[in-house]
Amino acid sequence: QLDNAAALDPLNIVTQHESISMVFLMLLETLTPIERAVFLLREVFDYGYDEISQIVGKEEAACRQLFHRAKQHLAANRPRFKTSKEEHERILLKFMQAVGSGDLDELMNVLAENVTLWSDGGGVVQAARLPIYTRDKVARVLLAIQGREHYGAEITEIYGWPSVLVRDDAGKLIGVMSVDVGDSQIQAVRFVVNPEKLGRLQ
Question: Is residue 80 part of a domain?
Answer without folding.
Answer: no
